[in-house]
Amino acid sequence: MESNQKINCVNIAYIFKTSLGSINGSWTEGNVSTVKKITLPNGTQIPYISGQSMKYQIRKAWKELGLADKLSEVKQAEKKAGVDFTSGEPNLYLDDDLLGYMIASSGENRRRTAVVRTSAAIGLFPFRNDRDLGTKSKEETGGDVSAGGNIFETEIYYNYFRINILVELDRLGVFQDFELAKANKGKIPPLTPEQKRERVNYLVKALSHIWGGGKQSRLLTDMSPKFLAITFQNSKSPIFLETLTVSENEELNTKAINEVLTGNSTIIEKQLLGVQSGIFKNDDEIIKLSEIKDIQTTFNSAIEYINKLNF
Description:
Blueprint: E1 9-21, E2 25-29, E3 32-35, E4 37-39, E5 45-49, H1 51-64, H2 94-98, E6 101-105, E7 108-112, E8 116-118, E9 121-123, E10 131-136, E11 150-155, E12 157-168, H3 193-208, E13 227-233, H4 254-263, E14 268-275, H5 283-286, H6 295-306
Parallel strand pairs: 3-11
Antiparallel strand pairs: 1-12, 1-13, 2-3, 4-5, 5-9, 6-7, 8-12, 9-12, 10-11, 13-14
Helix pairs in contact: 1-3, 3-6
């Protein structure tokens, strides 16, 4: 680590836990609200939260951090079947720069691939067909209470989720003509190093306070990290993408984490690890990981390191 090669990305991988949640819904089947699931080769299904949903939660977190004025205005599509889109001005707006956009309307077709590449958040344990039973009562509307209310069900789970986010620092704040409106082509310079660092820090702060998903009025969910690995790298690779695992005894797999860090030492310029105590059942093993701190200290250290970078 700490070579003379230039850092071109930051890799943020973490695990979060939900004791009872229904974060990302799928199709409704009759009166049952289902969750998104993927089927493994052996037929087992595991829940997941789409990358699109995760980016929505990041955008929501920015608003809650008081950054609404730095976010692009969402515009309605011209046709009913069309997709809403943002302003597409990455030089002006945080979300257009980091999360990308696609604009397909009369007069212009342009897009920016997201600087923040996000995996789906994958459940580490199978879906067990658990459901929450609810009823829409008729008591306050003067209906026939004896007949009962309208019954509905929601698929729920107890699970740990892993996610990997890769931020392309060499693309952040740098704009190509094909991404810009016709009037701006060739006229928009890159952001200053200070502006670039500020935008990365906004992402880090959002991830440290992220919460949300479906059914939050009755199934409040914390989506912030309980184990966190941040690596600043000289080569773009989501090194933790398939690695973070938790055993059925709810023990974090520290051996795999060490193997990833050791095996990728030539591309890792700086590594930061954090954990929330009391979540995993093997705290005594986890604290042996190299220079591991608590979650907030890890985020703060990442911000301090970012503030010294030039990219």
